[in-house]
Backbone:
């Protein structure tokens, strides 16, 4: 059985990157392997997790040589073809790895003893975000003491992120079977940050069979001027393609769409559902999950709202504060476009946070997707304090969209 890896996500904040990605540390707090749960879970039994705030761990971070740095680069909808090769040839670049990921449909899981854990019925599937990495280049971007775990992951093997392992109730030896017929054995539990907060990681050789085709982001190790390299990377992109470039400490986890929580962290907060895809973007969610988690309530300034039960208190608090501060005029009732809406994200295969009832659209008439924000800064400030992030600074702006990103300040 392979070593169970653990590294607190809190390492990211403020860490400095060096010859390896900023995840390196001298002292790593271990994560206990989740024990098997020999119970068959029908879809209606997959319910919402209670809201939790991860406890910060005290970890001594190993300083990195100042001449060696790491950056992340991603573009909406996937990277342009050949970008990794072009970036690898740029002056000052020492190493590049490209990470792919897709939504994969889980239809069955079993623990190491062969006991059935999850098996949705009625044609439903459980969505999982799975990343695929190149074993030849990705290990250069994880701590050296863990690089062998990524180099040696063999065909038919899969690593689970620590949060995903808890949700799946699986440890090493567990089995995951996907809708496309592929089947994988869990051989390692790794900290979320080591796999870009995906739910699971596979070697690139397994990507095609599993349908993981989209290159999402690059990790780049370099020396020299960050500003110059950023400019050169932007020049390598097709005209009109926006790019987000991050350095360690500028984002909680190095991954695409890093302004919002990854799907596994949304699941941890609001629960996991099974679903059946409908025509277009719609999703038919399992009735048991909807009954347990989706509620309707009257919210100040907005009226009758249907959201996740764990999302409503913060939304109500934000709207009450707007009232109390005499800022109600900043909310246009006609511009409220709802909260719970089970669907995919338009233009992609990801699941909208509206499917969890964990997002809300405000003042949409004056703030359509793709245009600059017309939201008042006072509204943005209130929403941020109550734990929401806004889409006004996204690469493709969506200024009317607000979704959960953290507990309200002070919780």
Residues:
């Amino acid at each position: 059985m392979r070593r169970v890896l653990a590294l607190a996500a809190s390492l990211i904040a403020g860490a400095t990157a060096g010859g390896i990605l900023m995840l390196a540390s001298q002292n790593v707090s271990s994560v206990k392997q989740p024990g098997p749960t020999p119970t068959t879970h029908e879809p209606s039994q997959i319910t919402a997790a209670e809201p939790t705030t991860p406890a910060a761990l005290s970890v001594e971070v190993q300083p990195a040589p100042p001449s060696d740095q790491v950056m992340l680069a991603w573009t909406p909808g996937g990277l342009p073809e050949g970008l990794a090769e072009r970036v690898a040839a740029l002056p000052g670049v020492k190493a590049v790895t490209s990470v792919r990921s897709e939504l994969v449909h889980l239809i069955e899981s079993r623990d190491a003893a062969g006991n059935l854990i999850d098996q949705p019925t009625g044609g439903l599937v459980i969505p999982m975000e799975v990343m695929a990495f190149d074993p030849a280049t990705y290990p250069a971007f994880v701590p050296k003491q863990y690089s062998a775990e990524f180099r040696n992951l063999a065909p038919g093997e899969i690593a689970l992120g620590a949060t995903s392992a808890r949700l799946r109730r699986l440890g090493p030896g567990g089995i995951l079977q996907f809708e496309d017929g592929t089947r994988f054995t869990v051989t390692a539990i790794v900290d979320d940050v080591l796999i870009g907060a995906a739910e699971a990681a596979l070697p690139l050789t397994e990507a095609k069979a599993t349908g993981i085709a989209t290159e999402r982001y690059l990790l780049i190790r370099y020396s020299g001027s960050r500003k110059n390299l950023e400019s050169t990377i932007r020049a390598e992109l097709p005209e009109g393609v926006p790019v987000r470039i991050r350095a360690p400490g500028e984002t909680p986890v190095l991954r695409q769409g890093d302004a919002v929580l990854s799907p596994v962290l949304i699941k941890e907060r609001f629960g996991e559902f099974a679903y059946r895809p409908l025509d277009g973007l719609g999703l038919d969610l399992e009735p048991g999950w909807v009954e347990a988690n989706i509620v309707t309530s009257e919210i100040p300034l907005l009226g009758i709202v249907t959201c996740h039960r764990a999302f409503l208190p913060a939304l109500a608090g934000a709207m009450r504060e707007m009232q109390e501060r005499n800022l109600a005029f900043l909310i246009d009732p006609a511009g409220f476009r709802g909260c719970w809406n089970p669907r995919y994200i338009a233009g992609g295969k990801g699941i909208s946070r509206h499917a969890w009832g964990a997002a809300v659209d405000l003042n949409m008439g004056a703030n359509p997707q793709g245009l600059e924000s017309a939201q008042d800064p006072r509204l943005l400030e209130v929403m941020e304090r109550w734990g929401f992030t806004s889409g006004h600074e996204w690469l493709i702006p969506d200024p009317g969209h607000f979704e959960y990103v953290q507990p309200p300040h002070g919780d």
Q: What stands out?
A: The radius of gyration is 21 Å.
